[in-house]
Give the backbone structure.
Amino acid sequence: MDDSTSVRSTDTLRCLPAVHEVLKHPSVNASTALLGQDSLANLARSAIDAARATILKGETAAQLPTTRAEWMDYCVRQIAQRLASNDSLALQPVFNGTGVLLHTNLGRAPLAPSAKEAIDQAAGYVNVELDVQSGRRARRGIHTLNLLAELTGAESALVVNNCAAATVLALAATSSNRETVISRSQLVEIGGGFRLPEVFQSAGALLREVGTTNRTYLRDFENALTDETAAIMRVHRSNFEINGFCTEPALGELAELAASRRLTMIDDVGSGCLYDFQDLPDRVGKSVTEPNVRASVRAGADLVLFSGDKLFGGPQAGIIVGKAAAVASLASHPLMRALRPDKLTLAGLAATTQLHLSGEFRDAIPLYRQLYRNKSDVETACGRIVSSLEGNRKIRASVVSTSASVGGGTLPGFVLPSFAVRLTSERISEAALAERLRRSRPAILSRVESEAVLIDMRCIDESDEDNLVHAIRNAADSTGGAPA
Ligand SMILES: *Cc1c(COP(=O)(O)O)cnc(C)c1O
């Protein structure tokens, strides 16, 4: 920075408004009721700081405001931008038009109405650790745990924050400073920081890998067992498949081996699949290869671990079911206190479990309604949206066939035929249109494909269609006047 620049900077710095002046500006002042004086003052301060930093960087004068009034506008604009970006990060309902049923960025499984009600009730005082009949303390969430055990045919159940927590707890409780044996074909990364070797490390468990990427035999496990061995583990690969020249021992064989050596058999099944989905109306592709929770319990696993918010269709949770002694040793581990679920999760899980037990899950759990929805029904829904948009001069809408997927690391290669509303605008690009839709309220999340925006209707409820049309119209209006 030469001398003349620094003189210019000092002059310019004098043009910056003070915090109290910015707060008095009408368009900033309007947000006082919503944000409170202190938060707004912090925003104003950081906007002025940002302006000061820009000046001190010595950017060419042509790009920067010069007068006091212009600098005031500059700061007010900065504040408006920050308010808008805070707003877009706030948790809010969205339309899932992505065609991915369990979307990790959208909180995976949407909850059943009865689960929402249960959560709403549990939000007040609730007997999460109390038997109201005897007035005595009860095991936390025991009602939920009993339902889970009943549903899965297990002796006992436990709930933690998520399946990653269940894995860490299972390894820490059974295998701390001792070895757990696992096939090399299962040392997976599930995504979002869940990498098996690192999970072992964080739990203080020693990883003993056996076999090869494609072929692992029972004898590989037998040969690896020593006095240091604590457990045998099977992990579902979840989001990819190994096909062709490959083999792995059956869970039953591994569980038998574990039992004969007094080791713990841990089965991380991940998705929490309870059904074989043979009766899905429009599935294409192969049959379901997802491990079944009840089958794992029957095969003799001591601990079966799965997520609450994948194919179970409930709230985020790690569910552990299995033999009473093995589950009890996890329940009494010191880590349990750090991983225990809150009352809302326990309430939502109990209600969801009840729907599986009663057989009502197909109609009541949104994930299952979407899975079992006929493609012709989705096509009709798209038709309704398209005719509601007829005559709109800013966007063109039509119905196209698409492929939906289950997502959330479950059922890879499993394709659900679906339909989408295809939107194009003559004024703006498909990417810009997708952005407008995302910025509408509620936000509409779509897919951009072959020069158009696709809103897959499989995950959008009929009762939400009017709102969706309204939001699309608003987004269309923001694209400017009708094409010439
Ligand atoms: C998804 C998954 C996990 C992680 O589950 P979260 O509930 O997301 O923590 C762990 N193991 C397997 C096999 C999975 O599929």
In short: DSSP finds 21 helices and 16 strands in the chain. The mean pLDDT is 93. The longest strand covers residues 395-407. Residues 68-89 form the longest helix (22 residues).
